[in-house]
Amino acid sequence: MRHFFTTKIKIVLLAAVLIAAVSAVVLSLTGNSYPSTVVQGILAPLRAGATHLTAQAEKLYDYIFSYESLLAENEALKEQLSQMEDQARQAAALTKENQALRDALELKQNNEGYKMVDGYIISWSSNDWSSTFTINQGTNAGIAEGMCAITANGEVVGLVTEVGSNYAVIKTVLDSSLEISATIVSSGYNGMVKGGYSTDHPDLLRMNYLPSSATIRNNDQVVTTGSTVYPRNLILGYVVDAGFDDTGVAKYALLEPAADIGALDQIFIITEYNVE
After folding, report:
1. Alpha-carbon distance 148 to 233, whole Å?
2. Which of 152, 207, 241, 267 is within CB 3.0–4.6 Å of 253 for a Cys-Cys bond?
3. CA-closest candidate to residue 174, choices 186, 187, 160, 158
4. How many structural domains compose the chain?
5. ∠ CA 15-21-22 to the nearest 5 degrees?
6. 97 in a domain, yes or no?
7. pLDDT, tens only, 251-272
């Protein structure tokens, strides 16, 4: 038993000596003690992991900061774009208004015998059987029932059928209940033009009571003959087709209206003119 402990003690002492020797060597080479070296070895992977996590956190922070900066820049660009769009709309509106004023001036210069009031469309009829709209001028501006409505280019739009102090209702040439005495310019043939609103051609006009021998050509211009309601030579439309009526003894012509009724926003009411 005593021999056993003596041997065990010797082994422990030998191990201690070896550890001391190794520590001395490490200390002399690195300046660190062996236990410190062991600890450093254990901590090295942890430090590397911490360094990696720190780098990733810095990258995440940079990404979040960059993302917020991009969001702010995006909002600023949207605001600038919105302002530019508003400016473009205002410029377009001014351009359109200036063109309308030039057209109105030219119309009055070319028709010195006319007294006119301009108005803007504020609503359209929702009826399936009529084609009417309302403008923002009425008796206060000198408008009365039975007055003719035209475009700035002298194209017939329709007739005033109802009027109030600050509004007027216009029945357009597309309405089948409206008839206008007209002439084909190239040939001088006369007839009556009415809307085709209740026919198979709702967007066309029909000129009736033309002679069966009449030569009718596409694109022939049709104008007003002149009356107490419609001044002479206002443009009604252009021939796009022709044929014989149900009796077979008279012809008719289909016309494309000169005025683009659906695209109108401003019109002119002729309140007074010299009958030729």
Report:
1. 13
2. 207
3. 158
4. 1
5. 90
6. no
7. 999 999 999 998 998 999 999 8
